[in-house]
Amino acid sequence: MDNDRTTTAPSRLRAGFVGAGFMAEVHSRAARAAGADIAAIASSSRASADRAKDRLGVQRAYDSAQDLFEDDAIDVIHICSPNSTHYALAEAALKAGKHVVCEKPLATNVQDATELVELAARAGTVATVPFVYRFHPMIREARERIASGQTGRISTIQGSYLQDWLLSRDDDNWRVDAALGGPSRAFADIGSHLCDLVEFVSGEQIAKVSALSRTLFSGRSNNKDIQTEDLVAAVFATESGTVGNLLISQVAPGRKNRLMIEIAGSESTLQFDQEAPEALWLGKRTGSQLLVRDPQALSPDAARLSVLPAGHPQGYQDAFSAFVADTYAAIHGDIREGLPTFQDGLRSAVLTESIIKSSKGGEWVDVPSTKELEGVKQ
């Protein structure tokens, strides 16, 4: 018998979760799909953790997040708690030597996000942020078409992210409270996804912005002094001179999760709508067409993410599962292109602060580029 036999299959990761709400459900489903043991959970209280343990099928509940981090058997931590807690939890998890998946925003200000990027680099662990819309196959197809020159020289970009879940004064959530959600709500929550897609797909970075924000209700049912925005409108220019506009709203009737980007080039226009993620609209001066997801007709990266045959729709949870699978692959040493890291979380924090500054001052604001921040590396 050969006692020197080497096992090539990666070991099964043990995942721990902080937070017990909707995002913990999404993360745990994705972790299970990626083959991890759903090992442990901590929440705002032991009672909350116990309830989530039973609901999500987690093996063990902990009294506190720190107790979870100190468990040497846990490999990766998923942070799914309110925004204001992300910095402290991610810092503690990294210092405990854990790989970390932290919900966005990575932090509620640029300084804290910068410190987390630096800490992750020193720790040498995998640290990612779920900008999961990158993992729709048709997004990867759009990105490849632009990168390969099929779209031509980009002239304009427009994007919107519209929801209606805070339409009424009676609609309330912890996110509207700046003490829990941070100084920005609509932009930090969903505008961050929109900007990440705009830059990821186009290959260009936003260089300056001019923004307006509005808060429709100064008070909601359980919150009497609302300071975070319900909607944001912005115009921008990229480093290469491309111009564009953004509209972000959580008070758009009938729009549940409508994330749309449209990028026009000299040869064609590409449009993606997250509520119809199986197709990519290809605009031509003559003969526009709708490209439907089919692994046999897509670029290699898009085909890789097409885990179901054509005609069998993929959606949000599939994209999230693909993100977690790529994160776990990176933990095992297989780093796949397009994985959003803490560096991307920092980029989002920079954009958010630029939007806030512009909307308050009513002026154009220059957005620091990744190159300007390249001293901060992961």
SSE order, one letter for each helix or strand? EHEHEHEHEHEHEHHEEEEEEEHHHE
Order of strands across the biggest sheet? Answer: 14-13-12-11-7-10-9-8-15
How would you characterize the largest beta sheet?
9 strands, mixed
Low-confidence runs (pLDDT<50, min 5 residues)? 1-8
Measured on Cα atoms, how large is the radius of gyration? 21 Å
CA-to-CA gap between the ends? 43 Å
What share of the residues does DSSP label as strand, in percent? 15-25%
The overall pLDDT average reads: 94
**Class from helix and strand fractions:** alpha/beta
Write down the overall geometry: globular
Number of helix segments?
A: 11
Question: What can you see in these coordinates?
Answer:
The chain is α/β, with parallel strands linked by helices and 378 residues long. The protein is built from eleven helices and 15 strands. The protein has helices at 22-33, 46-56, 65-69, 86-95, 110-123, 137-147, 178-181, 186-202, 300-305, 316-331, 342-361; strands at 14-18, 37-42, 60-61, 76-79, 99-102, 127-128, 154-162, 206-214, 231-238, 243-249, 258-265, 269-273, 279-283, 289-292, 365-366. The protein has a nine-stranded mixed beta sheet. A six-stranded parallel beta sheet has the order 3-2-1-4-5-6, with helices on both faces. Helix 2 links the parallel strand 2 and strand 3 (60-61). Helix 4 (86-95) packs parallel to helix 5 and helix 5 (110-123) runs antiparallel to helix 11 (342-361). The longest helix has 20 residues, at 342-361. The radius of gyration is 21 Å and the shape is globular. It starts with 13 loop residues before the first strand and ends in a 12-residue tail after the last strand. Residues 1-8 have low confidence and may be disordered.
